[in-house]
Specification:
single chain; about 300 residues; alpha/beta; TIM Barrel; 8-stranded parallel beta barrel; 8 strands; globular; disordered N terminus
Amino acid sequence: MENNTPPHYTTALARADGFYGSFVAIVTPFDDDLNVHFEKLTELVEWQIAEGSSGIVACGTTGEASTLDDDERLAIVAHVVKVVNKRIPVVAGTGSNNSRHSLHLSLAAEKAGADGLLLITPYYNKCNDEGLYRHFKLVADTVHLPIIVYNVPGRTGVHIPVPTLKRLAQIENIVAIKEASGNLDYVLKIAKETPDLAILSGNDSQVIPIMSIGGRGVISTSANVFPKAMAAMCDAFAQGNTREAARLQVLYANIIESLFIEVNPVPVKEAMNLLGRNVGGYRLPLYPMSEENRAVLVEELKKAGIRN
């Protein structure tokens, strides 16, 4: 992978080289029968690259991984890897609440050519701290890819304590955290206690606040709708233009909020369909958004200048 890391990031984070800027958590497009629409996926990937996204995360929450079977998940990863062809990094979402299942998916994604893995905390089981540590360690000890651990307690019911994260950061190929707790005090603590762990915002509303205390960018849902702006926001901060970065964060605040007015990825796929991206519908239990919320989304797209 070509090294295009901005000078701002040439620090002890070298082992996380390539994980900076705006990574789109790409949606999974479906056809009318709710099968994966690979031709549309190709189109979306090419558009993301053209718009300046730094990387692509396939089969994350926004990609509806929870309603994809294993064959579909791995086929999507392999397809994105092939289309990208090493132009930007491809990260595969291979997390599960079953450690052996996560290991299986991770090994298959490595074989498919992914550049990194995104591993969510084991939801529902709600293991203790040692189980949490060993869950990630099992995968890290077996695969050779860099790993981003994903902290999103609002979805999983599991929060990674700072002492456990410090232990994880000592494992060579655990290189980053996607932090989506919404707790900036926690982000500040991990920035202080795990300085060699790259921090990527998991909340589009907190990209610049997190970058201001050492974060390197975002794994973004909103980048499915306005990738160029998300990339510009991260790039401006990385280049020292903090005023412009903050302006963009504030400018897009309302549309970002509306993209989470219902559970992700329902609003973002609705927005993409409204904009003519034609990414299809959702698999149950996800269901189209209410007309009331849809009207809010339409209005915010207009106010942001994204839709006439």
